[in-house]
Amino acid sequence: MIEILNTIDSVVWGPAMIALLLGTHIFLTVRTGFIQRKLPQALRMSWGGGTSKGEGDISNFGALATALAATIGTGSIVGVATAILAGGPGAVFWMWITGVFGMATKYVEVYASVRYRVRDHAGNMLGGAMYVWERAFTRKDGTRPWWAKLGGIAFAAFAVVATIGTGSAVQATSMTGIITSSIPGIPDWAVGIAIVVLVGIVIFGGVQSISHVCEKLVPVMAVAYAGGCIVILLMNAPALGSAIGLIFECAFTPKAAFGGAVGSGLLMALQFGCARGLFSNESGLGSAPIIAAAAKTKNPAEQALIAMTGTFWSTVVICALTGIVLVSTMIAHPEIQAEVLADPTFYTGAQLASTAFATIPYVGTPILVIGMVSFSYSTILGWSYYGNRCAAYLFGKRAILPYHIVYVLVAFLGAIGVGNVVWTISDIGNALMAIPNIIAILLLSGLICRETKHYVYEGNIEEEDTREIPMISSK
């Protein structure tokens, strides 16, 4: 079974999925008039602390922070190291490119989610690709075609599967691994219980509790990690120019780096850089739009601009910093190159990251440990909200409590090293949830781009959207 699942996983995250996601990024970049040029405006809006007076449950900065909490995970550290080992230093450049173009997709998918959001029986805002399918393609007589129903159900079902593994088990495993290796003697089960308690007291409090914690945690952890990376780069200053040059050289030329020890040339750099970049920023997967729909915002474009800064921070900044740190450290410490060359199978992504950061006296290992633990914990919080919204869509509000119980239980199983099959299944679900999401936003891209012209390019970003937000029937 594991072999079959691994085969399916390699197919769904293979070249076809990479082409679909990257192609969508490029297409929507062109169709939105290169919305990325509005990044300075979007950053100013997000730095304002989420002061929009529009309708919603949480601040628009809270929605951004929660989405960032779910996005900046182990992929921002270990995922980058894995890409460098498999694709060489050039993979860092292609990760960066997916972030630059991915901002357009994040903008469009969040716009659609906010535009087609609904209220539940208690007045809470609900959104995401499932509600986009439900409302955007409803006929004039109020009925929905079967394919629209299927699109919403498929997205929600795949998302529930993905959240349990990707958001819970994998992150708990990463936290346990880094804590027990750094502090010998602590048993896995003790870390697992701590994770269950720390996660449970937040997620059972609902979206306000999750967003409140993320608003406080995300800026601190991101700034602390970025600051630590900058310190390491300063210590690697003599190798910094060579590292950046090597990243660009390996991105465009069929050259394996470090004497052939790392990477396999241009195609491998492109494949692994794009794959890890697309996974790290989640643009196109449809996850961030679920929390974005709960934001207080005057109109869909306002929150969409703020949301696209999440892709900028997660991939264009954090992943790029990690990549340059790792490449410059390998150049500055030839012994790491020699070990990889002697046994290319010796290093995993986690081992390479740990070794690279440990070369920096005093600060290296603490930066890595704090970064990994805080990133993993915040990811567990963010993905729990995605999953409970999708579970409620499929089975009604009665499904939320059972989902949360399963979610924290799987976190404990991940902490004690159980659940390889769950992780692989969730990875497959992660890829498959992107398909109905991408189809929906491509079908709606013309409408969204016309409205974007009005709100963004014609200077009406402060205009209130007066369309009525419908209430769904209680299940």
From TrEMBL:
InterPro entries linked: Na/Ala_symport
GO cellular component, one term: plasma membrane
Pfam hit, one: Na_Ala_symp
Keyword Magnesium: no
Chief location category: membrane
Membrane spanning residue stretches: 12-34, 61-85, 91-108, 146-169, 189-210, 217-237, 257-279, 305-331, 367-386, 406-425, 431-449
Compartments (UniProt record): Cell membrane
Keyword set, alphabetical order: Cell membrane, Membrane, Symport, Transmembrane, Transmembrane helix, Transport
Topology of this chain in the membrane: Multi-pass membrane protein
Domain of life: Bacteria
MF annotations from Gene Ontology: amino acid:sodium symporter activity
Gene3D superfamilies: Amino acid/polyamine transporter I
PANTHER family: AGSS FAMILY TRANSPORTER, SODIUM-ALANINE, TRANSCRIPTIONAL REGULATOR, LRP FAMILY
NCBIfam families: agcS (TIGR00835)
Name assigned to this protein: Sodium:alanine symporter family protein
Protein's organism: Ellagibacter isourolithinifaciens
